[in-house]
Amino acid sequence: MSVKVVLLEDEDLVRGGIRMILDVDPDIEVVAEGSDGSVAVELALKHRPDVVLTDIQMPGVGGLEATQRLVALPDPPAVVVLTTFDLDEYVYSALQNGAVGFLLKDTSPQELTRAVHTVARGEAMLSPRITTKLLSAFSTSAPAQSAKAQLEKLTAREREVAVAVAQGLSNAEIANALHMSQSTVKVHIGRIMTKLGAANRTQVAILTHDAGLA
């Protein structure tokens, strides 16, 4: 089945370019577009997308608020934030609010389509060139001691998986690195998210980084 995508972007030219890229992939279907985050929930409820790609800065309702509204829905779509800036101060807030990742608008077509498929599978996708910079720049947002206390709730094996998640590894890569099946990896990640109160893998990665483990 095709991955259904809703695209939110206020600039017509940018939105049209992103749609052209996604339309090339036969396994991706852009089911709706919007130029303002105010329509995010309406489009999500109507079209039931797997993924929402949203600009972070839009007139009216921006990407931050749109993300909050979307992740509050029952069975919410995966939200990926699009930004122009390497270290947009709002990106970290978007991740904390439940976005599963972010991409720069000049991301290559191949990386964009790969990101859509990745988050549709339930995995996080952060732009590789700035993930480390982002986490390092905002690592003081959560006290290290508090983060370490949270991670103490995990078993030794779960901490290994959490560190692998923070390193940006996919489920398949974690399975290979830790010598376990992908189904076991999924079980561990589910337990980790429950114990840490994390909404998604990205929040696990941030907490693990803040604890100094990655």
Automatic annotation (TrEMBL):
It holds the Pfam family GerE. Residues 4-120 form the Response regulatory domain. InterPro entries: CheY-like_superfamily (IPR011006), NreC/VraR/RcsB-like_REC (IPR058245), Sig_transdc_resp-reg_C-effctor (IPR016032), Sig_transdc_resp-reg_receiver (IPR001789), Tscrpt_reg_LuxR_C (IPR000792), WalR-like (IPR039420). The keyword Ribosomal protein does not apply. Keywords: DNA-binding, Phosphoprotein, Transcription, Transcription regulation. SMART domains: HTH_LUXR, REC. It comes from the Bacteria. Residues 147-212 form the HTH luxR-type domain. The modification 4-aspartylphosphate is found at residue 55. Coiled coil: none annotated. SUPFAM superfamilies: C-terminal effector domain of the bipartite response regulators, CheY-like. This is Response regulator transcription factor.
